[in-house]
Each structure stands twice: as structure tokens, then as C-alpha cells.
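quick one: nicotinamide-adenine-dinucleotide bound model?
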Amino acid sequence: MKKALVLGGGGFIGSHMVNRLKKEGFWVRAVDLKFPEFSPTQADDFLQGDLRDPLICRAAIDQKFDEIYQFAADMGGAGFVFTGENDADIMHNSALINLNVLEACLRRNSKRIFYSSSACMYPEHNQLDPDNPNCSEDSAYPANPDSEYGWEKLFSERLFLAFARNYGFESRVARYHNIFGPEGTWNGGREKAPAAICRKIALANDGGTIEIWGDGKQTRSFLIVDECIEGTLKLMRSNFMGPVNIGSDEMVTINQLVDYVAEISGKKIIKKHIDGPIGVRGRNSDNNLIKKQLNWAPTNSLKWGLERTYPWISGQINMEKQKV
Ligand code: NAD
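yep, here:
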């Protein structure tokens, strides 16, 4: 039986990956500070532990795995990443995890490992025009990410590639662009735009007002988690190391995103634009490289993803209301 290790397996993408690997017949170990929030883990073995501790990393990587997925990071949406208040923790915690994980893998000769980088590593100066951002993989340098989160991702993707060059690792690096979907964080300050907007609209009355950070004209693309898992597995099992974008190239403004969710909810919603952390002006996944290397790109639309996410978040809100 093939064995897989999912680091960050209690988080959003990690728990979806655990479920998928179980469906494929893998024996799966997951490691995280916390168990998945919204449904029981499907992992055969779940180690609750802190990957900043090298001894926990060595305990987690106590054997050779066929596939290792590294999702653990100190992360969140714009409200967590762009305020500047969490910069030291974001850089320190995530870099330590990646350093420890690779060292423990080396000791066990367990060298096939996927790393989840982020579109936040792309230079700010290529993302000033909301209608025409450049996020092709070869535009990464000269580097100029707009957040410390992006700088740490850049450092760590180089770290995984250095282990590939010097120690023969089969590293695979993807740059995720805004992944969303059911069982993702939807409140508490670490949630991202699609979840925050679904929550605000679910809580609003028909004809009600919701607050939007910035003028809403900033552009982004959003990828449903099912497609993210599909692309990640395709990359992991290919001969291509990356870094490669895994994202949707269906670019929308935040105002359009609000309109889509409002339509799904069946409510009329008034937008109130307020000051808030917004990140770069425009961002979109450039999918030329993934199409060329993996002969694959996501095909499900943003609306398709939102139609699955909105009912889940409004269901969570109803469950919370019943608890009170
Ligand atoms: P998430 O926060 O749901 O998952 C990360 C998990 O890592 C959490 O469960 C957290 O508890 C765990 N973790 C943090 N510190 C840890 C530690 N010291 N020891 C053990 N576990 C620890 O986030 P996600 O959305 O599932 O993202 C997974 C990965 O993908 C992250 O590396 C993230 O930076 C990257 N990524 C995500 C997106 C996105 O839109 N979701 C976009 C780009 C990149």
C-alpha cells in the first residue's frame, strides 16, 4: 500500500488532500497543530504537533513516504497578511516549518515532496494595472512581493529547489492563486475574500448593505479547492518540478465577485466601500506554463465554485445560530 504524508492536514487544502488520497487507496498520515475544524479527519494516523519543533518533524517523518505534501504555514487572508501586524510570526513560523521538514526528509531519504507556494510572491510592480497583471512564472525576478508572506514563500520555494539540486529531492512547487471552497476558514480574521463575502451576504437581509475593503475595482481570480487538488496531484506525479501557477484565469473585480454571490443568495445587496487591507491592484493566474507542462488547466467556473461554497457557509452560520 502506498503511503502519503500531509503536513498541515488539519487545514483547508490539507484536509481536502487527505480525503482525496484516502479515496485513491493511500495509507495517510496527517500532521497539524489542530484537527480539521469542520469534519473528522479521514487520515489513518493524525499527529497533533508543532512542526516548528525539529523533533516533531522527525517523529512525523519516521519512514520513507511515497508522497509528502507540505501545506503547513502560518497564513490567512488579507486581514491577516497585509496589516503588517503578523509579519514576524508569518516569516519565522513558516520558514522554520519548511527548514525542519526538509531536514527530517533528508534523514529518512524521503525525497518526493510537494510545496505550496503562493501567487503573493509575484512582484508588486507587475500587478499595478487591474486589467493587465503579469503573473507568468518567469516574471518572479527581480523580486518585489508586497508582503512578508510573499517573501517567505519565495525563500521557501528556493529552499525546496535547492534541496532538489544538492540532495536529489523530487521537489514539486506550485504557486496557488486564491483557493476557496467548502470547509475553508470563513470567519475569525484569517478568511479570504470569497468566504468573507459569502459570510457577509449570508448574514445580510434582502436589500441590506455589506462592507467591501477598497473600491472593489481590484481584480483577482479564485480557484475552487477540487481543481487545486487535481492540479497538485498532476504536478506531484509528473516529471516537472515547477514553480508553476495553480489557479484560475477567470479574472473578476471584487465588485463582480460580490454580484455573483448576491445572485446565488437571491438577495439584493448594497455595497459600501471602506478602507481596508487590499493587497495588489490586480492579479490573475497565467496558465500557459501548466498547460504546456502538464497538459492541464482548471475548467470549472468561478460561479460553479461559489454555488458550492455559499450554501456551505450559510449552513455554518445557521448551525452557529442554533448553538446560541
Ligand atoms: P490553512 O491555514 O487552512 O492550513 C494551514 C495549516 O497549517 C493549518 O491547519 C495550521 O494549523 C497548520 N499549521 C500552521 N502552523 C503549524 C505548525 N507550526 N505546526 C503544524 N501545523 C501548523 O491554509 P490553506 O488555505 O489550507 O493553505 C495551505 C497552504 O497553501 C499554505 O502553505 C498556504 O500558504 C498555501 N496557499 C494557500 C492559498 C489559499 O488561497 N488558500 C493560496 C496560496 C498559497
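Residues 8, 10-14, 32-34, 50-52, 71-75, 93, 97, 116, 118, 176, 178-179, 185, 192 surround nicotinamide-adenine-dinucleotide (CB under 6 Å).
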